[in-house]
Amino acid sequence: MEYKGEGAKGVAVEIRNITKSFGDFRALDDVSISIEKDEFFSLLGPSGCGKTTLLRIIAGFETPESGDITFDGNSILHLPPEKRECNMVFQNYALFPHLSARENIAFPLKLRKMNKDEIRRKVDHYIHLVELDGHEDKRPAQLSGGQRQRVAIARALVCEPSVLLLDEPLSALDAKLRQNLLVELDEIHDKVGITFIYVTHDQSEALSISDHIAVFNEGKVLQTGSPYEIYESPSTRFVASFIGDTNIFPCIVENSVYDNNLEEWLITVQIDELGSTVTVTDYDDIEIGRRLYFTIRPEKIRIVGGERKLGENSFSGFVDEPVYSGYQSKFFVKLDNCTFIKVLKGHTTYLDDGPEIEWKDRVSVSWRAVDGYLVKEEWSEKR
Questions:
Q1: 165 with 81: CB under 8 angstroms?
Q2: Domain of 349?
Q3: Whole-angstrom Cα distance, residue 91 to residue 145?
Q4: Is 190 exposed, middle or buried (0-12, 13-18, 19+ CB in 10 A)?
Q5: In terms of Cα–Cα distance, which of 56, 152, 45, 50 is closest to 97?
Q6: Alpha-carbon distance 92 to 173, whole Å?
Q7: Same structural domain for residues 48 and 77?
Q8: Which of these, 91, 232, 105, 100, lies nearest to 168 by C-alpha position?
Q9: How far apart are CA 305 and CA 343, in angstroms?
Q10: Average pLDDT along the chain
């Protein structure tokens, strides 16, 4: 009888006030995160920010100094790793080099002394799930990096855990293969229907694959939300700068007026680095005099050749450095007051004579008030 993979399903994971130090280094500082059942959740941040430490605490390889972790409301911290209903895919895959792909996948089932027929059915199911048919008898050295990663995922899934922990599993692969395997990983998640917790420092990976993301820095969670919320509405200057590319400036709120047509507040802020005021919309009225950060994404800025007024939030300058990438160009524009601003322009039509805007060209840039964003983080003169 064919095995259908009808094992454990995902659980809701609650991380409550977890703190962990290594000597004088505080790796995690009062971290709390709620992860819904069956979702694909990413822990995103730079190297050394604490995300892998948290993953290892969930797995049972590290013990926190305080806090709790629950699966469906039940604490797991008192359980040894093998009793936690979660498995981990490591960055280096940790495969046995002398065993075939099939034997690597079957290994945890043999430790559980499962009967041979059931092992065969389950292993066949997961080999097919990760699309390794025809490669099951090869050893790791005979497999590509992507195939080794699939073996590691199948081995982690074969015991049908409630939670799969993935510690930067794609970091050793080249960029194009990473993109392909991201799609496959998302498909695997949809098929097995369990909770995935994915650690990465790559913003594009997290944005493209996650249901929700927690952004880490220096042992703290700075923001949790959907990819859209994290990208469009960053809560801190670090999140705005770390997620994708952006232009960000300290500003001071000068005026706030409700716009009935937009059904939003139209905020005027002074930006010393631009030597000008700009307008930006916000859902809330903001107190005059507040010192916040204004951010505008490069792809939301319009750029045209020549020197002309384009409407609201319009500036002139010249192209200091163009970077052509085929489907788009990135321009580092030096404004007339010597401030640099980054602009992205997509190439949606055939360019018979190359890009319209080139190095040293005079240009005008502008953006709509609704496309900017005010980061509600205060700054001081000592920043």
A1: no
A2: 245-375
A3: 11
A4: exposed
A5: 152
A6: 11
A7: yes
A8: 91
A9: 13
A10: 92
The encoded tokens of residue 349 equal 């039509």
25 closest CA partner among 49, 59, 47: 49
Q: Residue 365 phi/psi, 5° resolution?
A: -125, 150
Q: Is 189 helix (H, G, I), strand (E, B) or coil?
A: helix
pLDDT digits (tens, 9 = 90+) for 23-54: 999 999 999 999 999 999 999 999 999 999 99
pLDDT digits (tens, 9 = 90+) for 138-189: 999 999 888 998 999 999 999 999 999 999 988 877 777 788 888 889 999 9
**Do 130 and 165 sit in the same domain of this protein?**
yes
DSSP letter at 288?
T
Query: Are 164 and 78 within one domain?
Result: yes
Domain finish residue from 240, 257, 278: 240
Q: Whole-angstrom Cα distance, residue 14 to residue 383?
A: 35
Domain co-membership, 233 together with 262? no
Token pair belonging to 111: 């430790």
Phi and psi of 180, rounded to 5°? -65, -45
Sign of the C-alpha dihedral computed for residues 93, 94, 96 and 102 taken in this order: negative
Q: Looking at the structure, tell me whether residues 177 and 95 fall in a common domain.
A: yes
